[in-house]
Amino acid sequence: MKRWMAALLLGAMGLAVIGCGGGGKDQVAVLETDFGEIVLAFYPDVAPEHVANFKRLAEEGVYDGVLWHRVVPGFVIQSGDPSTALPDTPPGKYGSGGTDQNLKAEFNTLKHLRGTLGMARSADPNSADSQFYICLTDIPHLDRKYTVFGEVVSGMDVVDKIAAVETGPRDIPLQPVHIKTVRITTWREAEIPKERMKPVFKKNKEGELIGG
């Protein structure tokens, strides 16, 4: 099985302003966690295969019951390993599971800012599968090395609560924190008030995704 825990390199703070939008932008993912809801928007313009993969896995129920198996304050929270939903999986195996596929990298100009959604991978750039992470701060060292395919538009307070749990060896939370379900829906159906929509990225005047 692939090892994802060592794949993300610890980064530092960085600043960027980038674009938001793309085809299928009306769809969002609503992650129901033990601490509340996290709503994710997608960027199919720059990472169509990663977006499609995440939506497909969510609709197939692959993410239901998985743990946030890696929590690194000041860096990321990581989830998406289907084996963590199985009661007999030992913690030592957390982060090694997937769905036995390999996504081709879709590195792009989107920066790793606080709230960014990216796909975890092993040392092989074309090895992303099901595991994903949310940035807790700006992490420029990951830019163009991991595929950014979305962002948190609601629920960063929930992300921060998850980031605050006590962890043990290998950054595994001592208190299990689950993703109960992931629902793919629309902005309207998710009933997200406009004042709660806080996109990290912006568009240029032509409405295109741009780098910082």
Features of this protein?
Cyclophilin; 8 strands; disordered N terminus; 11% helix; alpha+beta; 212 residues
Question: What can you see in these coordinates?
Answer:
The chain has an eight-stranded antiparallel β-sheet with strand order 3-4-6-5-7-2-1-8. The chain has helices at 48-59, 156-163, 187-190, and strands spanning 27-33, 36-42, 70-72, 76-79, 116-119, 132-135, 148-154, 179-186. It is of the alpha+beta class and 212 residues long. It has one domain: Cyclophilin-like (Cyclophilin), CATH 2.40.100.10. Strand 1 and strand 2 form a beta hairpin. The termini are far apart. The protein has three helices and eight strands; from the N terminus they run E-E-H-E-E-E-E-E-H-E-H.
If strands are numbered along the chain, what order do they take across the biggest sheet? Answer: 3-4-6-5-7-2-1-8
**Rg value:** 16 Å
Let me know the CATH homologous superfamily.
Answer: Cyclophilin-like
Strand percentage:
15-25%
Shape designation: globular
Structural class of the secondary elements? alpha+beta
Q: How far from one another are the termini?
A: 36 Å
Report the total helices.
Answer: 3
Q: Sketch the major β-sheet.
A: 8 strands, antiparallel
CATH architecture annotation: Beta Barrel
List how many beta strands DSSP finds: 8
Helix fraction, binned, reads: 10-25%
